[in-house]
Every structure is written in structure tokens, then in C-alpha cells.
Amino acid sequence: MIFDLRFAAEILPELLGALVVTVEAALLGTLLALVLGLAWAVVRRSRRYWMARPVRWIVDFIRSTPLLIQLYFLYFGLPAFGVSASPLLTGILGLGLHYSTYCSEVYRAGIEGVPRGQWEAARALGFRRLDTWRRVVLPQAIPPIVPALGNYLISMFKDSPLLAAITVTELLQTAKIIGAERFRYLEPLTLVGLLFLAVSLVASRGVRWLELRLVVRHA
Amino acid sequence: MPLACARLPAGPAGGEGRAGGRSFGADRRSGDATVNLPAPLDLLPHLLPGLGLTVALTVGGIVLATAAAVTAGLARLSPRLAVRAAATAYVETFRGTSALVQLFWFYFALPFVGVDLPAFWAGVLVLGLNTGAYGAEVVRGAMRSVPGGQVEAARALGFSRRQIRWRVVFPQAAVAMLPPAGNLAVELLKATALVSMITLAELTFRAQVLRSSTLRTVEIFAVVLVLYYGLARLLGIGFGALERRLGAGRLEEAA
Questions:
Q1: CATH for the stretch B51-254
Q2: ipTM of the complex
Q3: What single-letter DSSP state applies at residue B109?
Q4: Cβ contacts from A onto B, under 8 A
Q5: Could you tell me if A37 and A99 are in contact, meaning their C-beta atoms sit under 8 angstroms apart?
Q6: Whole-structure pTM value
Q7: What angle do CA B141, A34, A204 make, to 5 degrees?
Q8: Which residues of A touch B105 (CB under 8 A)?
Q9: What is the pLDDT of residue A110?
Q10: pLDDT tens for residues A59-81?
Q11: Phi, psi of B199 (to 5 degrees)
């Protein structure tokens, strides 16, 4: 038989352990992306164009260039600026930064979906700008875009193997190490594929469920 | 700087033991050649050959992705269950696993089943099939967005099923496919960087080699990022032009 099931069963626990690192990186990266993305989206709407325009340009630049190079840039470049971070932390930073630019587009769509009258009413009621954002606009802008944000979370999870390139021993890197030690790549890499498939199928079911719930609530 | 030197990447420079060693040495030698260009630009002669490969990967990937997307997108609308199931399996598999994992699988695992692809073709195949799976959803959505009255009218005029699909529905759907297709093309371009990890000496790979021989880390990656950004803009401009061309005379309808 080509696919050695006994070998596959033997290495599965090790791969599952590495999956934890992958999921951890994706979750922390998501947290960063959600916060940074909101910041980008809000600043891009700022009336201070000297702030809004560079941010728009930076977001566009980060979104149009490969994550892998951004990771290399952070991993090899940060020490040159005197900042040192562990590979995992660097990777989370890179994932979060890259996906924050996607999230910013999603937030922007949500914010633009809030009717103008809401802004005007908030001003008429004497809300300060910060309170308008916090108490009027964002509570209406965010619930409809949660599913879209969820989809980017799943995309980020699928991009997390790139962290192998900067020596993080996540799922793919672990499979590579096993493959190199045992001279068999078929089983470890197939298992990695199946694990990714399993997690992302479950996650996209979750997002669809969330979508239905939110649509029902807002209809 | 010695710190950066010690932290060699596991990816390209780590060497998977295949083509890596050979091209690595070759680039080292060319890296010593002196070129009379000001500071960051002197890196360009070493990077440009990689840029050519990156463009070739992108073009090859887009061609395959388009074919895969149209085939699978239409198959998902087929009345036959088996065809639909096969297309769904393809789309879900390629969208559900990571592009890098697919690349490693096609390059490192497939040889164990007797299929030995060169790095370039493994790259084109994975980029094309991966993006094609996302594209299939775009094709399906766009085909379904064409109003049913179009099909009914064509049927009333005696068009055959094939004619309805290719002469009536597809041309109208294509206009709706283009904006998302443009985004996918940029995603594909970005994903070509992953092929460096299976030892193909494209732009990212050359940047890594150059980095380990010159240690001008920040400069090199800044130049490379700008090159990728330029390519992405070119793709954007190309798709924009295509949209205007195909969308000509339809703008009022769309608004």
C-alpha cells in the first residue's frame, strides 16, 4: 500500500500538538487584525487628510504585496532596528498586520452602511466625535460584517503555514521535520492537508451559522 | 547584523535537498559582480531574472485558474449530481486547505506516488487550481445573477442549450466576474512568492539569496515589495481596462 496508515497514526499526535500552535497564531493574529483594521478604517475616514491619505496608501501597499515577504521583512529587518521578537511573535505580528488591511476594507463597508442621518442625529444631540463612533456608529456598523470578518479569520488560519518560513514549528514545519527524519513526505503532508480541511470546514460552518443568526436579528 | 546572519530561514535557504543547492551557489557568484548603480538600485540586476519567473508563474497560474474556474463553476450548476459533486469536492478541497500546504504536497508528497513535477510546474498547477477553486464560486455566482428572463427569451427564440449558455448567459455574467477576478489575480500574484519555498528561484527566492550574501536586509525586501506592488498595480490597470471594454454600453444597466 502506498499510504502507510500505521505511520500516519504514529505521527498524528505530534501533528495535533503542532496544530495548537497554528490555531494560537491565527487567533492572536486575528485579534491584532481586528483592532488594527478598525484603526485603519477610522483614520481613513478622518477629515485630516494628511493622516487619511498616507494610511490609505499604506493599507493598499500591504494588501497588494506578499505576506511571505512581509514576514521576512519583519523577521530579518526588525533586529536591524534593534527590536527582537521570537519567531512566533514576529509571525503573529505579520499575520495581524497583513490581515488588518483586509479587515479595514470590511469595516469600511460596515461604516458606510450606517445611514448619514445617524451621524447627523448624533451631532444634533451633542455627542462628541469619539462618543458618536463608540455609541452610535460602530454598534450598528459591526454586527452585519461579523461573517465577513470571520471569513478572513479562516483565510488567516490557512496562511499560517507561512510561519514555517521564519522557523516557527507550526503544523507544516512539524510535518516537514517528520518528513525529513523519516524520508516520507506523503503521510505527514496529507495529514496536514486533512487537518486544515477539517478545521476550516468546521470554521466556515460556524461562520454560516453566525451569518444566519445575524441576518435574522437584523432583518 | 551577526544575529541576522545566524537566523537562516528554514524555507528557501534551508535547502530541501533538491534544486536548492545548485541555484544557491550560482547566485552567490553573480552576487559578487560589481554594478555601477546607486544604492538600492544596484540590487535590481540580481533580482530582475527572478521577476521574469514571477511574471511567468503569474501568467501561467491565471491561464490555468481561468480554465479551472469556468469548468468547475459551470459544473457546479450542472443538472447531473455526479458532475456537481465532483466540482464541489474540488472547490472545497482547494479552498479548505492552505495554498502552501498544497504546494508542498504536490512537490514533496506526490513523488511518493510516482508523479515528479518540476518546481515551476508544481507552482503553476497549485496556483492555478487554488485560485481556480475561488474563481469557480465567482463564476457560479455571476452565472446565477443573470436574470432568468434572458434564458426564457433565448429559449423562445429557439436557441439551443449550448447557445444559451455561451451566447447569452456567459457574456453577461463575464462582466460581473471581472472585478472579483481582478482581486483574485492579485492574490495569485502574491501567492507566487510561496513557490520560493519549493526552491524555485523567482523574485522572493532571489531576494533571500541576495540577503544572505549581502545582509542588506531592509533595502532588499523594500525593493522587492515595491516590485510586487508595481506588478499588482499593472494587473489592476489591466483588469480595469478589460472591465471598461467588456462593460461598454452596459454601464447604465449596472447603475
A1: 1.10.3720.10
A2: 0.87
A3: I
A4: 136
A5: yes
A6: 0.85
A7: 40
A8: 189-190, 193
A9: 94
A10: 999 999 999 999 999 999 888 88
A11: 70, 15
* Residue-range domains of chain A with CATH: 20-169 (1.10.3720.10)
Cell numbers placing A144: 452585519
pLDDT band at B34 (very low <50, low <70, confident <90, very high): low
Residues 176-205 on B with a CB inside 8 Å of A are 186, 190-194, 196-197, 204
DSSP chain A: --S-HHHHHHHHHHHHHHHHHHHHHHHHHHHHHHHHHHHHHHHHT-S-HHHHHHHHHHHHHHHHS-HHHHHHHHHHHGGGGT----HHHHHHHHHHHHHHHHHHHHHHHHHHTS-HHHHHHHHHTT--HHHIIIIIIHHHHSGGGHHHHHHHHHHHHHHGGGGGGGT---HHHHHHHHHHHHT--HHHHHHHHHHHHHHHHHHHHHHHHHHHHHHHHH-
Q: CB of B127 within 8 A of CB of B191?
A: yes
Q: Minimal CA–CA distance to B45: which of B227, B235, B230?
A: B227
